[in-house]
Amino acid sequence: MDKLNSHDFDVLVVGGGLVGMSCALALNRQGLSVGLLESKPGAETPQSSISGQDWDSRIYAISPANAEWLASMGVWQHVAAGRICPIAQMQIFGDAHGSHLQFDASEACIDSLGFIIESRQLEQALMTALINSNVSLMIGVAPQAAVFSENHSEIRLADQCILKARLLVAADGANSWLREQAGIAISTYDYHQMGVVANFETELPHHNVAYQWFGDDGILAWLPLPGNRISMVWSAHEKFARDVLELQAEALSERVSRQGNMELGALKLLTGARAFPLRQQTAATLVKPMLALVGDAAHTVHPLAGQGVNLGFRDVKGLVETLHARGQHQSCGDLLLLRRYERARKLDLLEMQCVTKGLSGLFSHSGTVVKKLRNWGLGLTDRQATVKKYLMNQAIR
Q1: In the CATH hierarchy, which top-level class contains the domain 59-118+191-278+365-395?
Q2: Is the full-model pTM beyond 0.90?
Q3: Is the backbone of residue 382 left (phi > 0), alpha (psi -120 to 50) or beta?
Q4: What is the CA radius of gyration of the chain?
Q5: Is pLDDT larger for residue 120 or for residue 383?
Q6: d(CA 203, CA 213)
Q7: What residue ranges in 140-285 does DSSP mark as E strands?
Q8: What is the DSSP string of 4-24?
């Protein structure tokens, strides 16, 4: 709150998650005056250290392009190298013998397919960069109302303080308060599934390989962490997911080991399992006069492609590029300008939502003919070099 002296900004970002923090930092680097408002209380000073055993079950697969972008803003360098795990290879299995698809970084002549990093590590790296920037940080400050007038927008706080901005950016998550204040509707598709996450220690080394199994019990992903550790994401129907959550540590470790065909030997639970509901959500519009939506406030997708936060980062990059290209006397909140951002993002979002929704539906279907087709499709794709190259290029953006 020590920076809450100026109440007038070019851009005010509402929401201090990964996407919101990166947005504030990136826009500030463009020479704009930027404020970041986050209602949840939290320390503005990053923790000095994290225990080697204290592994966050919330993890992200960051694409190489986004890792490079974060490095260009001085963020990636603040993450301890020992907490980042590059993905050298990805192996995908269907539920029939021979239904296998493999992606290899060496085939694409790149160093890695992506990087696995804990949410808390990246949050702290972003906060460190923000503290060293000119962004006005307002942490633990609750907004009360958003007002859009002819020339600027306002956020009114509980203490009657008014924050003015030429542009508000809604980066406050799937249940966005700012999106609701602006009266933007959302469409929701409920998968009636839950994503169960937990971390495990492995008996065998994973060699930086990510695994994914599609089957009747849902979609199981093992993502490599530094050392002999993996992070699990198991997307399954709600009842099955709740049954998995009720398993004791040893039973859960054995169940996950067997579901992954003992690829890494016996597993030992490191963090307690937790779950979250899976829904695809799309805002009716990404922009209004003096308002732009980014990240989960704009869209959510199924986690099977691991692209949620990457989509959010691409939103930010698209918004930064749009504002950078504005006319000399054009306001950041000009609707015609913001429409360019929306048009630039629509195709990327539509492609990802169609792919994840389609794959989830295909692999949750229990029909015999559908099973044969989907397993045949995996094997066929693995033999098509051009198709594989296209899919890898999409994943590393």
Answers
A1: alpha beta
A2: no
A3: alpha
A4: 22
A5: 120
A6: 19
A7: 143-148, 153-157, 162-170, 186-202, 209-215, 218-225, 229-237, 267-269, 274-283
A8: TT--EEEEEEE--SHHHHHHH
**Topology alike, domains 8-45+122-187+281-360 and 59-118+191-278+365-395:** no
Average pLDDT, integer, range 293-307: 83
Kindly provide the b/e burial profile for residues 53-72, where b requires at least 16 CB atoms within 10 angstroms of the residue's own CB: eebbbebbbbbbbbbebbee
Domain ranges across the chain: 8-45+122-187+281-360, 59-118+191-278+365-395
Q: Residue 86 carries which side chain, given as an amino acid letter? A: P
Angle, vertex CA 239, rays to CA 237 and CA 242, nearest 5: 105
* Beta-bridge partners for 219: 214, 235
Could you tell me if 193 and 236 are in contact, meaning their C-beta atoms sit under 8 angstroms apart? yes
pLDDT tens, residue by residue, 211-247? 999 888 888 999 999 999 999 999 999 999 999 999 9
Task: Report the C-alpha gap between 165 and 35 in whole angstroms.
Answer: 9
Give the pairing of strands 136-139 and 100-104.
unpaired
Phi, psi for 139 (deg, rounded to 5): -100, 135
Q: What is the CATH number of domain 8-45+122-187+281-360?
A: 3.50.50.60
Name residue 137's beta-bridge partners: 36
Tokens of 97: 């013998």
Give pairs for 260-266: CB < 8 Å, separation 24+. 260/211, 260/213, 260/220, 260/222, 261/93, 261/213, 263/204, 263/211, 263/222, 264/202, 264/203, 264/204, 264/205, 264/206, 264/222, 264/230, 265/202, 265/203, 265/204, 266/203
**Cα separations (Å) of 330 from 35, 226, 333?**
20, 47, 8
User: CA–CA separation, 392 vs 371, rounded Å?
Assistant: 24
Using CA atoms, how far residue 19 sits from 93, 213, 237, in Å, is 31, 29, 28
pLDDT class for 356, splitting at 50, 70, 90?
low
Amino acid symbol at 28: N
